[in-house]
Design goal:
By secondary structure, this protein is of the alpha/beta class. The protein contains ten helices and nine strands. A five-stranded parallel β-sheet has the order 2-3-1-4-5, with helices on one face. Strands 7-8-6-9 form a four-stranded parallel β-sheet, with helices on one face.
Length: 288
């Protein structure tokens, strides 16, 4: 029996995750009151049960005593029940934006202010988030990327660390990304922009990639960056970081940074220890 409890911030993607779990064979139950969790657990582990995979959604709006959930789950573990906790999260700006777009009322926003509801809910869920086995931050995740994360954990059963890494290319002339954790400047490499046949292309094109990577300095940079990240990332995980944005910048964000971001993404993807996505912020910027 695989028993997964799915919870998290309202607007963080809990229902989407439950639907994805259902698609891969989980029997899903949503919005069960906290007081019924133990009884539900008793029923699903009965020898006569034919269910082998269960996902239970717990929502802060379904029970005002949600602060007791951590205590109840701890008691279940002490009694020998085995389960995993999947916590769906997103940053404050993403959650507020989602609520405003859908015009929904946040369950904990008594006065109608979404911001206050989000902050109060994060306090309420702090305990269960700390005890979660998996934390997926959906702030910048596409649906297909979320599905890949769900499959990685619950289908392929790969070793999981609750860290989502974004490798981003950008152009300094358009500003450094506000959410960048690590910023690297690759303007030391020759610029394909000044080569007529390469100027209209980007680092997603083989011709530009071949040109940029033809310089030994590009490979050396990647080797040193890869080595540093192999040291940094496990230590970020140890300290509880669950989102890391690695930004690689050149002048316009079309050639050198895109090429090297692609190369770094390819290396880290092969390692396969963390969730990872690739984003080219300025590659389509017409003012470049």
């Amino acid at each position: 029996m695989r028993f997964v409890i799915v919870t998290g911030m309202s607007g963080g993607g809990k229902r989407t995750a439950l639907k994805m779990l259902e698609d891969i064979g989980f029997y899903c139950v949503d919005n069960l009151p906290v007081s019924l969790i133990e009884k539900f657990a008793e029923l699903i582990i009965m020898p006569s049960s034919e269910i082998t995979k269960v996902a239970l959604g717990l929502d802060v709006r379904s029970d005002r005593s949600f602060t007791e959930t951590t205590h109840i789950l701890r008691q279940l573990r002490e009694k020998g029940y085995k389960f995993e906790i999947l916590f769906m999260d997103a940053d404050e700006n993403a959650l507020i934006k989602r609520y405003k777009e859908t015009r929904r009322v946040h369950p904990l926003a008594a006065d109608g202010r979404v911001e206050d509801g989000v902050r109060k809910e994060r306090q309420v869920l702090e305990g269960i988030r700390k005890s979660a086995d998996y934390v997926i931050d959906t702030s910048n995740l596409l649906t297909r990327e979320l599905k890949e994360e769900i499959d990685r954990i619950f289908v392929r059963n790969e070793e999981y660390n609750s860290l989502m890494i974004t490798v981003m290319s950008f152009g300094f002339k358009h500003g450094i990304p506000a959410d960048a954790d690590l910023v690297f400047d690759v303007r030391f490499l020759p610029n394909p922009f000044y080569i007529e046949e390469l100027k209209p292309k980007t680092g997603n094109d083989k011709e530009v990639q071949d040109y940029v990577m033809s310089f030994p300095e590009a490979g050396t940079f990647l080797d040193k960056l890869d080595d540093m990240l192999q040291f940094l990332v496990p230590n970020y995980v140890k300290e509880g970081k669950y989102r890391l944005v690695i930004a690689i910048g050149c002048t316009g964000g079309k050639h050198r940074s895109v090429t090297l971001a692609n190369e770094l993404y390819g290396r880290m993807k092969v390692q396969g220890h963390y969730g990872i996505k690739l984003y080219h912020r300025d590659v389509g910027n017409q003012s470049t």
